[in-house]
Automatic annotation (TrEMBL):
Organism: Rotaria socialis
Short name of any one Pfam family annotated for the protein: WD40
Keywords: Repeat, WD repeat
Keyword rRNA-binding assigned: no
Keyword Isomerase attached: no
Name by which UniProt lists this protein: Uncharacterized protein
InterPro entries, per the entry: WD40/YVTN_repeat-like_dom_sf, WD40_rpt, WD_repeat_creC_regulators
């Protein structure tokens, strides 16, 4: 297993993480009441 990214919440901790069905995006939600979308390019 290899760490490919480090994601940090803007305030508080992460409460949920969800990958898109195609595996290209990840959505995170946290104690800061924001949803953040990240694009993941495995290449």
């Amino acid at each position: 297993m290899e760490l490919v990214a480090y994601m940090k919440s803007y305030f508080g901790g992460l409460l949920c993480v969800c990958w898109s069905p195609d595996g290209k995006y990840v959505a995170t939600g946290g104690e800061d009441d924001f949803i953040t979308l990240f694009y993941f390019d495995p290449n």
